[in-house]
Recover the amino acids of this structure.
């Protein structure tokens, strides 16, 4: 039976590779099957800063811009849960967003958190694609949140369920208004902390929580006053706290993400530590530009280095 299962898995993997035209993504290999890109939410309170509205980094499949390189290839159906999840992770790493979504949609009524949080992620990634219209985007955002919520209800010990619940809850704020968005930020932090507690080696959760802290640490005084009108004790943080999470993410997985290097440089700049800011901004500038976001990070790093 073990030999048969191994052979079946090999056949399915080969068919998948043919279906998606080979293994996609970064030239850095398959060690990391995602990218994170910052999505800055324009300030509804008059500032161009993302901090107040908690513009959390947006996670999406690696190289999602090329998600339609093959639009018509049959999905290979798995024999069991393990096979389905393996295929789902392969499609995610290959940036085959639509096919991944269609594969996992067959399990939308599942009681298994492993299916549900992946479906939440796929729904969210689909909402982010360039040609997704506004109405469809909103539908997918709330659909993703519902899947993440159900995943958490099924297994509150699953770190990924907590992480994607936090991320998807943040997304819904775009359609809920400022008051709801600020209120959600407390919940978002709680679930990110729980995700890290359950899996301290997940660099992504550490980075996002660092960004959460940075966003509120750089909040201008006038936005703090507006927030205090809505909530007597609005979310607060410090650059020191943000730095702690960015450094932990780097320790867990060195050079895993160009944006983490950039945020380290920006945090040290905010803390007036020019020497360390130069160090990390230089690393961000020299990071191999595999994606559009890497190129944007490079550009910002160069601009900040020129300021220093």
């Amino acid at each position: 039976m073990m030999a048969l299962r191994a052979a079946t898995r090999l056949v399915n993997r080969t068919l998948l590779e043919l279906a998606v035209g080979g293994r996609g993504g970064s030239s850095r290999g398959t060690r990391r099957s995602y990218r994170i890109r910052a999505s800055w939410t324009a300030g509804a309170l008059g500032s161009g800063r993302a901090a107040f509205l908690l513009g959390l980094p947006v996670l999406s499949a690696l190289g999602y811009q090329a998600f339609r390189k093959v639009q018509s290839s049959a999905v290979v159906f798995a024999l069991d849960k393990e096979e389905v999840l393996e295929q789902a992770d392969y499609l995610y790493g290959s940036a085959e967003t639509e096919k991944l979504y269609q594969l996992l949609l067959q399990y939308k009524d599942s009681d298994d958190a492993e299916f549900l949080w992946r479906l939440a992620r796929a729904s969210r990634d689909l909402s982010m694609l360039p040609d997704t219209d506004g109405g469809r985007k909103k539908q997918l955002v709330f659909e993703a949140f519902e899947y993440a919520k159900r995943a958490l209800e099924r297994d509150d010990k699953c770190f990924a369920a907590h992480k994607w619940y936090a991320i998807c809850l943040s997304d819904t704020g775009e359609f809920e208004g400022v008051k709801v968005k600020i209120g959600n930020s407390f919940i978002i932090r709680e679930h990110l902390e729980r995700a890290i507690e359950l899996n301290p080696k997940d660099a992504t959760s550490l980075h996002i929580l660092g960004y959460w802290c940075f966003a509120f640490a750089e909040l201008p005084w006038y936005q703090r006053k507006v927030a205090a009108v809505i909530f007597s004790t609005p979310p607060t943080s410090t650059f020191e706290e943000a730095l702690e999470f960015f450094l932990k993410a780097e320790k867990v997985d060195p050079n895993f993400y160009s944006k983490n290097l950039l945020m380290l440089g920006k945090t040290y700049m905010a803390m007036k530590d020019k020497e360390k800011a130069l160090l990390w901004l230089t690393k961000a500038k020299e990071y191999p530009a595999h994606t559009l976001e890497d190129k944007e990070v490079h550009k910002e790093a160069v601009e900040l280095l020129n300021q220093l």
Summary: The two ends are 63 Å apart (CA to CA).
